[in-house]
């Protein structure tokens, strides 16, 4: 089926763009390749748009596949009419399709099927017509001891069971009820009696309700988690009277009689026994899916920012995984991240071998020409940073904290064991911290993204959808930066467009057997790396020592002849063209437009010639926490501190101020203006200045603000309150006042 018009309307792009993109995807094109090297074909669609087309096509193809199965099932029952076939084919959503199919869907034995077996369907039809009939005498005709219908009430009950199933299978009614649940439904959460203490972390939801349509994703997922852990009871329904009124409006006849009364009873039974559980399940799945999508969006945005963190680059690094009792694990790494040396030092309590530790660090800095020292930000991190900075090392040596989230996961992984089979877990963790400073992207791809510590309820969302989104994010980051093929790990190569784990391993093995790659064309000699894989991957792979200058750039090999033609036209070599802005200024791009190459690609080529193999990431900047603040006990309300954004959620941003416990800058305190989306204001790893608003040591909670005058609003509200005459009943309890203040400051 052609999906171009539908998808084009949904994504607000042209049908021909959709058609071309679908064609490229079906030919095996990846999202990064299509968006980077096929701009003319797609009309310059970006990665987000190409991925959107890919995902929507998959959904529509799944829907078509289900339609075929439904039509086949109904046809095998001998019940397929032209009208029904048309309804199935026109269904635009899976929910609508399943509503149409419900009356024909093979069922387990229900109350209605049992009643039909007792011959009560004609009575149900008679009553459902809602005509005025002598109900008792008509029902009496169906009393049959052999069929286990003992009396009139049993006959009427069976008829109501059949009618309830008919009502439940009414497609239009289900659509209206689905809308009612979404628009008028309410999430209601209550603590399970007796579990108040165990469930204390869910205290906010002990007696909570809010409209389904406006409940934010983080609260939906939190309530569901509380329910899953058997601490909360959760409902997602509208008022029963509202639902019954809508059902009666659709089903009941205007005239009141005994038949109508029976139908009314059947409606009530249908709602409570069939429709309400079915709709609630469906709405919970829909809201879960929506919450998942929002949480995954937050996670992937955070992950991308973390992956694209500024790299220190190829420098000799000392990395320290800090600790108290077990000491600090110290490693020295070469400019390519190669492991050179390990030892443990004990500068802190209980051993406090401070002088010895200091001598070791100074000696190693000199021996290995260390240019930077990376210190993990976990336990004893700030104390270790203070100690290292007190040693009087050369000013040229950078000393900085590194987020170590996920380092322990890496150290116990197969990847780490393969890289360092002879090293202890803790030593591998230190290596990861050092390499993370040198190149965050190259190191973080070795860790399960869920363990990197930038998610929001990542273990509660649909894991397949999460993996799909995270893979897209990592692939986008890797291909956006580009990969040096001669130094890249298998994990990094795996995410290169067109490769994957098998070809990545083959590249590593070929490199080990034959030495470094000298040209991109040599990649074609790698086993199983055929023309298609080469086309998809080549532009994203760099060979810094290659003879051909374009092999060091993001210019695709398919455009080398075009660049050489440009060089010839200005009487220069390709190398000259790349090094001379004057020569590049002579190139008139429109002269090189053809059927396959347009101005967007030509402009990309010219930009790349100016900065071949450029790294799109920001330049590394040294950051330092406030030296006088090392623990949560050092914090005081009103303090202004430097911090680093570690995580962004739908309700604000978490900031590390160097006290081993991140503080929350609530959405309402991210800026002096109204903020709807935290990503408008902050990014992961961003350096910010914050003001301490609240410190709750027992619960380890820190409230922060990024407003220029965060206490101004509090002062205004207090002044307003002081001048307002109070009635006794308005004063409230101290608990109520505290609750109000917490609400004001986003806690």
- The helix/strand class is alpha/beta
- Major sheet description: 5 strands, mixed
CATH class of the largest domain: Mainly Alpha
* The named CATH superfamily of the largest domain: Tex N-terminal region-like
- On the 0 to 100 scale, the average pLDDT is 90
Uncertain runs: 723-747
Q: If you compute it from the alpha carbons, what radius of gyration comes out, rounded to the nearest whole angstrom?
A: 33 Å
Say how many strands there are.
15
Name the CATH architecture of the largest domain: Orthogonal Bundle
Give the oligomeric state.
single chain
Q: How much beta, percentage-wise?
A: 5-15%
User: Helicity level, as a percent range?
Assistant: 40-55%
Continuous helix count: 32
Organism: Algoriphagus halophilus
Domain S1 motif: 638-707
GO cellular component, one term: cytoplasm
Protein name: S1 motif domain-containing protein
